[in-house]
Design brief:
There is one protein chain. This protein is elongated. The longest helix is centred in the first third of the chain and has 36 residues, at 21-56. It has helices at 2-16, 21-56, 63-78, 81-92, 99-125, 128-136, 141-171, 183-194, 199-230. The chain has a single domain (20-230), classed as Orthogonal Bundle (MetI-like fold), CATH 1.10.3720.10. By secondary structure, it is an all-alpha fold. The chain has 9 helices and no strands. Helix 2 (21-56) runs antiparallel to helix 3, helix 3 packs across helix 5 (99-125) and helix 7 packs antiparallel against helix 9.
Length: 231
């Protein structure tokens, strides 16, 4: 049992001494802030892009906007998020004092490229009769989209949005490249300070695993309730 006591002693020296556990707590909160902030930005961007692409299929006047959206989707999907983060921090927002906002914006822009296709698929899945019903009630195309189509589309794609949140949660682990002390960076700092090469990283992995499994369980419950309500 000596090994167990030695392990607990190592944990105490690694996390409790000098209150290093607070670094992990701060990193955890920063990870949540970046994830939620980026998801909100991604939903806004994704909704705008999806609506433009849906309308552009029937309106040639929107062709230029459709081309810009395609360029955005190609560039964002075709480059690693780490590279996008470095470009944002060292080139675009070179004078930024807080890397957190840079990370939120960058991850949000990246997320928007993927959320856009999810929302577009949700819109296209809505029966055309819904649009015709809105038009027959005197709504404009924009009003029909905003008041009738989008609410139904979002209800259908909420599980996919949840999956995007999980993906974002894991992607934030690279925010340390721009001096953001998120969960992974916090664990790495403790590792470098204590020379404990194992426990800090394992604890970080465990925290991510618990968060992802927990969110996945909640999504599964939510999906089941959605299916029950649709019956």
């Amino acid at each position: 049992m000596d090994w167990l006591f030695n392990w607990f002693d190592t944990l105490y020296n690694t996390f409790i001494v000098a209150e290093r556990y607070k670094t992990l707590i701060e990193g955890f909160s920063k990870t949540i802030i970046i994830t939620v902030g980026a998801l909100l930005i991604g939903i806004v961007i994704g909704t705008i892009v999806a609506i433009i692409k849906v309308f552009a299929d029937k309106n040639k006047k929107l062709k230029i906007f459709d081309m810009l959206c395609n360029l955005y989707l190609t560039v964002i999907r075709g480059t690693p998020v780490v590279v996008q983060l470095l470009i944002s921090f060292f080139i675009i927002f070179v004078n930024a004092k807080d890397g957190t906002w840079v990370a939120i914006i960058t991850f949000g822009i990246n997320s928007g490229a993927y959320v856009a296709e999810v929302i577009r698929s949700g819109i296209m899945a809505i029966d055309a009769g819904q649009t015709e019903a809105g038009r027959s009630l005197g709504f404009s195309k924009v009003q029909t989209m905003w008041l009738i189509v989008l609410p139904q589309a979002f209800k259908n794609i909420l599980p996919a949005i949840g999956n995007e949140m999980i993906a974002l949660l894991k992607e934030t682990s690279v925010a340390g490249y721009v001096a953001v002390i998120e969960l992974t960076k916090a664990g790495n700092q403790i590792k470098n300070t204590t020379y404990d090469q194992i426990n800090p990283i394992l604890l970080v992995a465990l925290v991510y695993l618990v968060m992802v499994v927990g969110l996945t369980k909640l999504l599964n419950i939510f999906e089941r309730r959605l299916r029950i309500n649709e019956r």
